[in-house]
Specification:
The complex is a heterodimer of chains A (262) and B (319).
Chain A: E1 2-6, E2 9-11, E3 19-20, E4 23-24, E5 31-33, H1 36-51, E6 55-61, H2 67-76, E7 80-84, H3 94-111, E8 116-120, H4 131-139, E9 142-153, E10 156-162, E11 166-173, E12 176-180, H5 192-200, E13 205-206, E14 225-232, E15 240-243, H6 248-258
Parallel strand pairs in A: 1-6, 1-8, 6-7, 7-13, 8-12, 9-12
Antiparallel strand pairs in A: 2-5, 3-4, 9-10, 10-11
Chain B: E1 5-9, E2 12-13, E3 16-17, H1 19-29, E4 33-39, H2 45-53, E5 58-62, H3 71-81, E6 87-91, H4 94-107, E7 110-115, E8 117-121, E9 124-131, E10 136-142, E11 147-151, E12 168-171, E13 182-188, E14 202-206, H5 215-224, E15 227-230, H6 232-236, E16 257-261, H7 267-270, E17 278-283, E18 296-299, H8 302-316
Parallel strand pairs in B: 1-4, 1-6, 4-5, 5-12, 6-11, 7-11, 14-15, 14-16, 16-17, 17-18
Antiparallel strand pairs in B: 2-3, 8-9, 9-10
Helix pairs in contact in B: 3-4, 5-8
The chains are: A alpha/beta (262), B alpha/beta (319).
The structure holds flavin-adenine dinucleotide (2 copies).
């Protein structure tokens, strides 16, 4: 089993997230690996453990600070890390990002075949959940998305998928792009030895040139959609709070009636 | 592309058009001339009439059956039926996001999902959405020649067209690609009686504070005409099924009224409900983060507050 896991560096959920010139403000101080990608790393490690052999690569695409995301993946047990970084990447949309990740996957796949790419179900900043599908289409690999369980047998992967209207079981041949939800597993805690090793690990940096990507095809200029305005929402006005001293329910009902909501 | 045709992917259940589809058609009218796109068995006459009433000049049907569950096949079907439509509006769900992505890879469209609205500015489609757990407003311009907009339910008020015509019905033949993915089993989720969570105009959610008893939550939701939601802790405990989970990794909801009962308001939960119209919180802990975003908060026990609220509302209605 040779698996590549994608991990994204995102602003911390608890930090004051903001936009600068139409893109997300990204700093090393309050950024970290997308929490949901911990489940992707865990799923990959479990598949390798189940197969009894193999290795896990963690890959991130992003500016210099994004290296923190792959270091976190190494702490969790990924065996190798790759950081794709280039000034030309900034402002990429989902399709640009998918093109870059696909090129990196092909480069590794050419060295020795990969069986799978595992991603998180969503990046907690962009939250589009589109990347895994775009990547599968770009690579022309099987697409198995939103897996709450994944298994591999006889060159085929099978997933369980819990959609609002139905629970599906979907199977497809390898190689496949699999996205996993936070229901899929419980990520392990990093152990001390791995934390120390991750700190010192050499992480190769690949540029667009290394990947043979024409810079005109990615980045903000190539993006099919551009943020033209971003503003912080004003706080809610006229907020009212009461303490229940026996009348709280009635006060709530009166509020709802007055608002035409009940 | 010069035409102003705006295709709307209609969501239908048991042959009936869903309310978000009518909202999407209403939005599409403000962007150009809407046509309705229907994947599956041809709609009955009353569904066609309703689509016409909300402004669809034409209903295009691609009879792809269960293949619609595979995003690559659904995307190919839509591509075949929308060659002349530079804009496509879909209702933002996990499934339509995948279909939209596949379609965009085929036709080069720019995609924005989870939009709360859209307009045409200087010939481009611009969308409006909230991000970062609804703490920021963002306007996005789609620069590509084709645009796909995923709109969230409850963000446009559905209204019939002013001068609707009768919609014509057209069958479209599509050649679907072979896919490597194969659906081994589909087990429908029992949707219960009420409106699905994502579409509900009112959501009453219970968290750990319910201690596993959803009787009051269900009753309150019933009185307010809403759906029942839950926090992750509640679904993890097995108190209520996963389909009810509201939040960043569950269902994102934007109802006119959201009532959080015994929910602390963790950032993951807020990410899925903070864009709601009016937010009400009932919590014992005055420092619970949910009170930072609630329009009306009651510090107290849900077991005291909800029964009294129900009683007052019923008395007001003369019940
Ligand atoms: C607020 C906001 C709104 C946006 N809206 C749009 C939009 O409407 N249309 C559009 O085309 N683009 C949009 N983008 C850009 C888009 O987010 C990025 O291109 C991003 O890299 C991919 O999409 P995502 O973050 O939504 O990832 P998702 O599809 O939500 O992420 C799924 C998984 O993909 C992997 N992944 C995603 N990005 C990376 C990465 N850089 N490195 C490694 N792994 C990764 C992770 O494993 C992640 O769990 C938006 C970005 C932001 C911050
Ligand atoms: C990657 C990730 C994704 C996640 N995604 C989601 C998600 O999508 N949705 C989600 O909800 N969570 C999600 N979570 C979990 C989230 O972080 C919180 O743990 C969860 O929302 C807490 O649920 P709760 O509010 O019910 O419980 P608690 O935080 O334990 O809060 C219970 C509240 O009930 C109050 N209470 C107790 N008794 C009463 C009473 N009688 N009357 C009134 N109030 C009472 C307490 O004061 C307390 O504030 C996610 C977590 C992670 C790590």
């Amino acid at each position: 089993m040779r698996i590549l896991v994608t991990v994204k560096h995102v602003p911390d959920l608890q930090s004051n997230r903001s936009f600068t010139d139409g893109t997300v403000t990204r700093t090393a101080d309050d950024g970290s690996m997308n929490e949901l990608d911990e489940h992707a790393v865990e799923a990959a490690l479990q598949l390798v453990e189940a197969a009894g052999e193999g290795e896990v690569y963690a890959l991130t695409v992003g500016g210099p600070d994004a290296i923190a995301a792959v270091r976190k993946a190494l702490q969790l047990g990924a065996h190798h890390a790759i950081h794709v970084s280039d000034v030309g990447i900034a402002g990429s949309d989902v399709f640009g990002t998918a093109m870059i990740i696909a090129a990196a996957v092909r480069k590794l796949h050419a060295e020795a075949p990969l069986d799978m790419v595992v991603t998180g179900m969503a990046a907690l900043d962009g939250l589009t959940s589109m990347l895994p599908t775009a990547l599968a289409a770009e690579l022309d690999w099987s697409q198995l998305t939103l897996a709450s369980a994944v298994s591999v047998a006889d060159g085929e992967a099978t997933i369980e998928r819990h959609l609002p209207d139905a629970h599906e079981t979907v199977a497809a041949s390898l190689p496949a792009v699999v996205s996993v939800t936070d229901e899929a597993n419980k990520p392990r805690y990093p152990n001390f030895k791995l934390i120390m090793a991750a700190r010192k690990a050499e992480v190769p940096v690949w540029t667009l040139a290394d990947l043979g990507i024409d810079p005109a095809l990615v980045g903000g200029d190539a993006a099919r959609a551009t943020v033209v305005e971003a503003s912080e929402r004003p706080p809610r006005e006229n907020r009212r709070h009461v303490t229940d001293k026996g009348e709280g329910g009635r006060e709530l009902a009166e509020f709802l009636i007055e608002k035409g909501l009940a | 592309m010069s035409t102003d045709t705006v295709a709307v992917l209609i969501e239908h259940r048991d042959g009936a058009v869903t309310p978000p589809s009518l909202e999407a058609l209403t939005l599409a009218r403000s962007l150009g001339t809407p046509i309705a796109l229907w994947l599956g068995d041809a709609p009955a006459a009353d569904a066609v009439a309703q689509l016409g009433e909300y402004g669809a000049a034409e209903v295009r049907v691609v009879g792809i059956g269960d293949d619609a569950r595979l995003p690559a096949k659904a995307a190919a079907a839509i591509a075949a039926a929308t060659e002349d439509a530079p804009v496509l509006v879909v209702i933002s769900t996990f499934v339509t996001k995948e279909i939209a992505t596949r379609l965009a890879v085929l036709n080069g469209a720019g995609v924005v999902v989870d939009a709360a609205g859209a307009s045409r500015v200087d010939g481009h489609i611009e969308t409006f959405q909230t991000v970062f757990a609804a703490t920021w407003n963002v306007r996005t311009r789609i620069d590509a020649d084709r645009a796909i907009v995923g709109v969230r339910p409850n963000t446009t008020q559905a209204t019939p067209a002013e001068s609707p015509g009768a919609a014509t019905l057209t069958q479209v033949e599509a050649t679907l690609p072979q896919t490597r993915e194969r659906i081994v089993a589909v087990e429908p989720v029992d949707q219960g009686e009420g409106v699905p969570l994502a579409e509900a105009p009112v959501v009453v959610s219970g968290g750990r504070g319910t201690n596993g008893d959803y009787t009051l939550i269900e009753e309150f939701a019933g009185v307010l005409g809403g759906a029942v939601g839950a926090s992750r802790d509640a679904t993890d405990e097995g108190w209520i099924s996963h389909e009810h989970m509201v939040g960043q990794t569950g269902t994102t909801v934007t109802p006119a009224l959201y009532v959080a009962c015994g929910i602390s308001g963790a950032v993951h939960h807020r990410g899925g409900m903070q864009a709601s119209g009016t937010i009400v919180a009932i919590n014992m802990d005055p420092d619970a983060p949910i009170f930072e975003i609630s329009d009306f908060g009651v510090v107290g026990s849900l077991f005291d507050v909800i029964p009294q609220a129900i009683e007052t509302i019923k008395a007001h209605r003369g019940e």
